[in-house]
Amino acid sequence: MAGLQSAPNDSKKFEANPLLTKEKNDLLTQTGPGTPMGDLFRCYWHPALLAEELPGPDCPPVRVQMLSERLIAFRDSENRLGLMNEFCAHRGVSLWFGRNEEGGLRCSYHGWKYDVTGQCIDVPSDPPERNSCKKIKLKAYSLVEKGGIFWAYMGDPAKQPPLPEYEICTVKPEQRFLSKRLQECNWLQAMEGGIDSSHVSFLHSGNLNTDPLFKGSAGNKYNIADKRPVFEVVDNPGGLFIGARRNAEDQQYYWRITPWLMPSFTMVPPRGDHPVHGHFWIPIDDERCWTWSFDYTGARDLTKSERESMEDGHGVHCKYVPGTYIPLANKTNDYLMDREAQKSGLAYSGIHGIAMQDASLQESMGPICDRSKEMLMPTDKGIMMARRKLFKAVTNLQEKGEMPPGLDPETHKVRSASVLLPRDQAYEDVAQEHLRASPGTPHASV
Amino acid sequence: MAGLQSAPNDSKKFEANPLLTKEKNDLLTQTGPGTPMGDLFRCYWHPALLAEELPGPDCPPVRVQMLSERLIAFRDSENRLGLMNEFCAHRGVSLWFGRNEEGGLRCSYHGWKYDVTGQCIDVPSDPPERNSCKKIKLKAYSLVEKGGIFWAYMGDPAKQPPLPEYEICTVKPEQRFLSKRLQECNWLQAMEGGIDSSHVSFLHSGNLNTDPLFKGSAGNKYNIADKRPVFEVVDNPGGLFIGARRNAEDQQYYWRITPWLMPSFTMVPPRGDHPVHGHFWIPIDDERCWTWSFDYTGARDLTKSERESMEDGHGVHCKYVPGTYIPLANKTNDYLMDREAQKSGLAYSGIHGIAMQDASLQESMGPICDRSKEMLMPTDKGIMMARRKLFKAVTNLQEKGEMPPGLDPETHKVRSASVLLPRDQAYEDVAQEHLRASPGTPHASV
Amino acid sequence: MAGLQSAPNDSKKFEANPLLTKEKNDLLTQTGPGTPMGDLFRCYWHPALLAEELPGPDCPPVRVQMLSERLIAFRDSENRLGLMNEFCAHRGVSLWFGRNEEGGLRCSYHGWKYDVTGQCIDVPSDPPERNSCKKIKLKAYSLVEKGGIFWAYMGDPAKQPPLPEYEICTVKPEQRFLSKRLQECNWLQAMEGGIDSSHVSFLHSGNLNTDPLFKGSAGNKYNIADKRPVFEVVDNPGGLFIGARRNAEDQQYYWRITPWLMPSFTMVPPRGDHPVHGHFWIPIDDERCWTWSFDYTGARDLTKSERESMEDGHGVHCKYVPGTYIPLANKTNDYLMDREAQKSGLAYSGIHGIAMQDASLQESMGPICDRSKEMLMPTDKGIMMARRKLFKAVTNLQEKGEMPPGLDPETHKVRSASVLLPRDQAYEDVAQEHLRASPGTPHASV
To answer: Do B350 and A89 touch (CB under 8 A)?
Structure first.
């Protein structure tokens, strides 16, 4: 695969425990306007809303908070999409109370009206000769629907990259399922969970045999049997491939390979014929993020039963507090801890459901975990490499104005994979074709 | 009318958008002890409690927070009224737990007892010869009942002005209705809503034809038809008259004239034969205020049906969370947003009820709105003039010790009015008698 | 009694109102790591958990917050007790989600396992030759069960004192009852309530004749009749005896003597044949504490009816929000204020139950009361002397490294007492034997 090259892999370095100072931790975790990581995030398209949230023309506007900015999203009478400052330019009233009608969103206080570009197009109380509205414009961002997701680009319009081409956006609707849930911690510790393939043998071990979207694959036995995965991390043009190998029979390794694309896209390696799972981790503010979760198949439609399992909160999805995207099991109710299930091994941590197993632990680290107190291990190599790559990209952007990796949609066309390989073969050499998106073909999966 | 003079009215100035710096915004919005605006507020009598809150001698004491001070109000055995520091001088226990009995409020911790002046009159554990209680006095303020309201004066006793003479206090009980509700934002943005006559044509437009206390007046049609009111603001001795004119037939203007009295009394211009509405906006702390709402009639009793409508939360009143003065529709439940009613036009913003339409938008600006980001228009002239007058009064008080306007009860005797006038006549010349309180006569109302 | 000596007793000094500056108040109230009072607290054993909270081997781990440290307590397979940092050394996940099994607590994220000393004993993902776990150890503290309580020592292991010998720990289980409740204020103002014998004549007066664990004692009538107790405070080796005398017939005084042991143990003087009550006041953080409440008898078992009363929340105990140690009557519901009961005298402050009468008033002072605004009286002598003793101990510890009083378990062997004495006799001379723990004998009680 072009651009795929081996990453520096000196295990001594990792054992040196590269703890993050408070300054470095702040740098990686803060994404508000004007922050270095905020600038980096604003180079990319990010998922902002599920298609269901703006179902049709003139539907109710929706409050969106992303990267510590408070925005309002709406779909106008002509189906154009708008994403702009939540507050009216006049006196600062929330446009969530606005009337979405006749080609724009009208503030309900004095009737000022804005189109999807944020341009004020009517100030009813103003004498026409003043024509004030021409001079009034709310900060607005691009919002585009693709693949069941409304994507936002919050950066410099002059540098807007082409639309994303993650495979989840390009498959047929019949092949995919999307959800999102509120996660009450910083985006980075959530994302780091997504590239941490080693915790599956513990935290999710009880689910490998019971979850309808995980159970029954041949590879599961290696996950359970070998709790000492060895990590091999290689660069790809948009991020990293994080390979974790476990011992298998016949002088083979069972490889699970997780792609990470800058800054916050991850994909779980597949299991048997199950759909493939993945995530986007999108900052709301510095202490909360949206965990976007998806499933898709490479070469067939999702079955009715798979779709029902997803809607029921199995796999990487969850049940909600009705009428919200807040998980039903959450911090306020101790995630519905079930000590019986913990004792019996049905749920390793006592928390039911793979999604909330991850979220509960990640939130227990605190809203922003203190990375000066960690004790990283060789199995955290993916995490260390991703941080390093983020640092480098942030520094290059700040100091040289160099655009970060992952903007070219070609770099999005990656896949996760699980494969059995002879022990003497490097996965990055052998598995290249499996790690490339390949419309209409199934994933490489054991 | 004596003292009524035209205010500077250079529209160019207003277009210059006199944004408030953070310092000026702080000055106008902070009313705690020792702040300049706090000093100004402490020159006046303010409504502190509804008569129903202290129904009789030795009734339960009531916690009162005003101007960022925590106070306790009580009515003693002899019906004397007390308003003093909430906390016992001994160890700081809240006197809300106190026993109101035998001529004073007794702390329930060690039995220290205070009379309505804050004077400690008993320290039971103290040997009589020590006579400690003589030296112990809680800070206390004047509290006086007038017109169904307990009025508080929290300033220098030597400068206590005569009791207020707002017409609402001087009419018979049969002619008035009073309510109050918690509003979760600074007093100033709430008050500014009260002198903003231009939003009626939008926010409340759905109610002009349906609210039993608004509908059916001849003037309503001008409110709906002409959404470009022109403002003429004139000084009055206690504040301002804010006149908003709309086009009417026969070379006439439909004038709606709103009096504002320093610092936080406003009155809505009347409609047909309906009772007249008005408000006091009283700071609790810098992020919350009490919105006092009243209705009264100039020359007749309120009807049973009017009174029932008010109790049901129509007009400027609202429904409550039972047992509280917290609106039932509030921030925690998105004000019971009804998108169907918004779509149909029944409720312009989707929020039901005039009171909560105002409160929801004012609260959506944030607890203290940032006036450095506004974009004021000629229709905001009343707001600009009121701020200017507040600035001037605060500055004069701080720098020269000059008492502010509006202390003389004669200045309270104003009325709102709605009138049709020939286009070539200035309302301040023609409508003078209508803007003066006139016991026993109906309001000038179209 | 050895070491018992009269404390300086110059009443003029107390009248001088020794107000605490903010600095001194901070010094006494802050107990987090590295604070002077935190250092003092860390010299002692403190109650951390009720025995019921860790009922058996491999039971669920329990979160413990004490002295502003977040800890996890567990009982391992061999019944050994652990109390250590709540968060895994690896990535900071809470060990509350951990699996308590096979001789240790295993983090559910990656399976790291700790024994009761905090020593990491397994890092499953780690190659055995690395043997990383030897170098990994969580900060851990001694946790020991004695007398139905798990006691924690959070100080320097080299200076760990012998286990406590408070009489409550040494009586048979049949003779004692223990409870704890969350109190939403700083430990010091809660503890000061515990040594304030004078408020009983007021706050709890309604309960002296009705509470099944208080009513009917001969001494109650003196509590009611003489509301001017005179305080005599004497040193004891571990703290103070705070004697409060009230007038009785026949030239006698009714003495109620409250022991306070450094830093936060207090015992209520007994009434008739009722069990004796006492408290520990243990900081959670600077704005909350655990109020530990106990009852025990010197020479007999508790009766079934006494135990039921305690379980029902009578005496110094309370009813809970189900499944928690949070009082059912609490700040969020105004402690279920009952103004009728206040009026009738059934509940002096309107709050039901002795425990919540105290807690409600102490919490009403604010999370940390401002002692620069107090007005102390001779009846507050116990409080003044205790503060003085705490200051002295903190200063000696900080400046000279001198260990504070109350570490020697012999000093724990105190009792409260209520006695009738001739007026010309000093209680510290006459009552010495009554103030000493005396297994198998009843308390001196009137």
So the answer is: no
